[in-house]
Amino acid sequence: MPARVHLIGAPTDVGASVRGCSMGPEALRVAGLAAALQGVGLEVHDTGNLAGPLASAPRSPHHAHHHLDEVVRWNRAVFDAVGQALADGATPLMMGGDHCLAIGSISAVAAHCRREGRKLRVLWLDAHSDVNTEATSPSGNLHGMPVACLLGRGPAALTGWSGTAQALQTQDIGFIGIRSVDPGERLAIRDFGLSVYDMRYIDEHGMRATMTEALMGVDEDTHLHVSFDVDCLDPVDAPGVGTAVRGGPTYREMQLCMEMIADTGRLGSLDLVELNPALDVRNQTAEVAVELLQSLFGLSTL
Length: 302
Hints:
The protein is α/β, with parallel strands linked by helices. Helices cover 35% and strands 17% of the residues. The protein contains nine helices and eight strands. The chain has an eight-stranded parallel sheet with strand order 2-1-3-8-7-4-5-6, with helices on both faces. Helix 1 crosses helix 9, helix 7 runs parallel beside helix 8 (251-264) and helix 8 (251-264) packs parallel to helix 9. The chain is globular and about 50 Å long.
């Protein structure tokens, strides 16, 4: 893993229905993210916050893609910033903001991997699968559609950024902690043949076996990208999220998940999204996220 990390703030909730995760990057800074990563031996450069548009109009219940133009502009900013960090030889840590921003970050990572001739593996840590399209989404909120966009089934304005129609192939992505899936998403998961380790799987097999399977095939030629939606955690540990779902991994289960990813030595880029300080308790969720990121970057008991 590179020894340098670039923090990239993307303060927007334009893809979500619940306001507040635009404050996520600052909450992470208040929780001491930079110092925490420096404490595990990393050189940290905070590049500040990207600029982007506010939502131009209220959401309409009949709109297939709410605030599409604004989502495109924010993701273009993320795409450029993540691509620049990778070109500089650093690990980009995109601090959201809502999960629609993963379209820009993962598209940039996919383009980088294609240029470098490396394999890409994405771990999607989330309570939700985010595989909705305009035909299946019950809300029209684009933070529920980034995976579909990355698989080439989104609006034309949000696909093809990596240089090919699909930034990801189905075998490139694995889902951890899923427990809230819309009916249309269930069909899409089956049609795509996606690898989904939902909470029942984790309950039955344990986090160690789950991560061993999810990380199979990761080797020295692999660029590993983690897209960490904080609502993957159980809301007991992470109340500060906009779409909380009970029954998620415990703090310790998620810490083991992060430690096993760190053990691969292949982490190359990261999203941390959907942190909503407006719904948090004394910045608890941001502090938990910072502790888990330390584990992700190699901190261990011994």
